[in-house]
Amino acid sequence: MARDRKPSRRRTRLVAVAVAALAVGGTTPALADIPAAAGGPVKGHDVSSHQKNVNWSSAKAKGATFVYVKATESTNYRNPYFSQQYNGARAAGIVRGAYHFALPNKSSGATQAAYFVAHGGGWKADGWTLPPALDIEYNPYDKKHGCYGLSKAKTVSWIKAFSAEVKRETGRRPVIYTTAHWWNTCTGNSTALATTHALWIARHESADAGSLPAGWSYWTFWQYDNSGSLPGDQNLFNGTASQLRKFARGY
Q1: Hey, what domains does the chain have and what are their CATH numbers?
Q2: Model confidence over 3-15: pLDDT tens digits?
Q3: Which residues are catalytic?
């Protein structure tokens, strides 16, 4: 997703017809089946400092129902536009949440989770706040160590520690943002977190077409493109607007 220096990514854009098919409850070769309870996915996006001060009334008018805003990275970076983006989205009537870009080689999962929660990664059951999200993907700063130099078991332990601290401080488990390729490569196809964490799947890389990370049978959020009508990356929620608000409230 978004660190604050643009990474080089192996992306192939999904054709617009895939989104159109999904919007009417269909499936495509690049998607897992939509749960039967979902009446139709709703549109959203995610932003970081790349987008600077966002025109939220414009985003709302273009159909934004939700947004995830980058708050932190490791334990030494805070998005300087976070307040304008996070609070501005809420003022415009957009459901919003915060995400943390993980660098597991820098410090422990619990340490990074505490930093995140202290700098924007909170949650409350008001129907407007999405659960905190953990962005974990290939190391953008060192391509030779895409799994951050951690073993598969230590990677899973790091994520569990991050999750436990977020849950302890906020009352919610974080949503996990990742790609199937990274997850299966760096966690060894671990299924240990799938039953307790919502999945935010990044699927615009050819290597991930048609797959989900091990253990998950469906996605909650789908980031399908890095450009479009909304600022930042384009996303869908796997359900209706009413279901999105229930998910935000925690039930």
Answers
A1: 42-181+190-249 (3.20.20.80)
A2: 554 433 333 333 2
A3: 46, 135, 137
